[in-house]
Amino acid sequence: MPAPDLFLLGSTHRTAPLAVRERLAVPAARLDNVYDLLRGPGGLGLAECLVLNTCNRVELYGVTDDIASLRAQLIERLSRFHLLDPAELDRFSLWKEHEAVVTHVFDVAAGLDSQMVGETEIFGQIKDSYSDAARRGASGPVLNRIFQKSFQAAKWARTHTAIGRGAVSVGSVAAELATRIFGDPAQSHLLLLGAGEVGQSALQALRSRGAQAVTVASRTLAHAQELAGPHEGAAVELARVPALLATADIVLCALTVETPLLTREQLATAAHARAGRPLFVIDLAVPRNVAPDAAGLDNVYLYNLDDLAAIANENLSARLAAVELARTTLAEKARLVWAALSGR
Fold first, then answer.
1. Domains in the chain: ranges and CATH
2. Are strands 189-193 and 57-64 parallel, antiparallel or unpaired?
């Protein structure tokens, strides 16, 4: 059996800065368009495909009958989709073929390729992406085998190595950073924007450290109430957020938006009203919820995912042996899977 023409085109924290990654992020409402581009009428006609779209990566996996000219075609189609110059998109992209794709999937599923090495959220995200591709009928025998085996490989890595030791989830690192700045979270008022999984993780981590006063804002008030209720918190609509900045101490931003929700002017107004009390803002979203130029304001401490990754990886040196063991073993597992797929 000939080896399938398997490929990956993607952009991650390793290839692109945050300002570029947020331009390449695919809103949920446009995910159908990406699948149409890959396999729909007038698309590239891929035999199989899967889109992995997270905070720090957009990766397109596929199986094709003719890989020779595919990269150039993909770059050209995606540059139009994202309104980017093809040369710029190509510059910030990674391209892998055949066995290297399998190895990459295994590393991603295990958290070895994550910005926060060993983080756990990616496992659920990659499973969700696979389920979505399967539901669409976009994945097939090759991608099904690769991704199902990647789940087994990731579980092996977490069970048999120490790659996940320490605070390596977005929520736990955000909570650790807040604790460093404010000391006891119980004395701080927490304002959470967004009721999704990332926001929930950060809220639970801060609550476990003693945070008491909690306000949740979301596009849908019912969603905010659903999250705030078990934490004895308040729920508000997004329109009230600017006024609440004057009284909040920690603001966690985890909304899916295409343009910043909080502007420099809004944060400057809030900082003035706070009379010198610091305002700590953690932007967990890509695209960002907070205008980047707000970082220069006095008494406003703005952190993004890149900042959190640097903190999470402070203890990485203690886990390097575990990471190397996991990486080497997963590469061998990937080799065996590829050998089976290519009939060798």
1. 5-164+320-341 (3.30.460.30), 170-308 (3.40.50.720)
2. unpaired
CA distances (Å), 255 to each of 48, 206, 265, 285, in order? Answer: 31, 18, 19, 6
Secondary structure class of 41 (helix, strand, coil): coil
Neighbours of 68 (CB within 10 A): 8
Assess contact for 201 and 170: CB atoms under 8 A.
yes
Name the nearest CA neighbour of 211 among 260, 255, 176. 176
pTM above 0.90, yes or no: no
Is the C-alpha dihedral spanning 60, 61, 66, 69 positive or negative? positive
Catalytic residue selected from 34, 55, 192, 202: 55
Query: 49 an active-site residue?
Result: no
d(CA 311, CA 290) in angstroms, rounded, equals 20
Produce one character per residue of 251-285: b if its CB has 16 or more CB atoms within 10 Å, e if not.
Answer: bbbbbbbeebbbebebbeebbeebeeeebbbbbbb
Residues 134-193 have pLDDT tens digits of: 999 999 999 999 999 999 999 999 888 888 665 467 777 877 787 777 777 778 899 999
In the numeric block, the tokens 């997004």 are attached to 238
Contacts of 193 (CB under 8 A, 6+ apart): 199, 217, 218, 238, 241, 251, 252, 253, 254, 255, 261, 289
Neighbours of 320 (CB within 10 A): 11
Characterise 98 by phi-psi region: left (phi > 0), alpha (psi -120 to 50), beta (else).
left
Q: Taking a C-beta distance cutoff of 8 angstroms, is the pair 251, 242 a contact?
A: no
Sign of CA dihedral 270, 271, 275, 277: positive
Query: Which residues are CB-contacts of 118 (< 8 A; sequence separation ≥ 6)?
Result: 111, 112, 163, 164, 165, 166, 168, 319, 323
How far apart are alpha carbons 177 and 342 in whole angstroms? 47
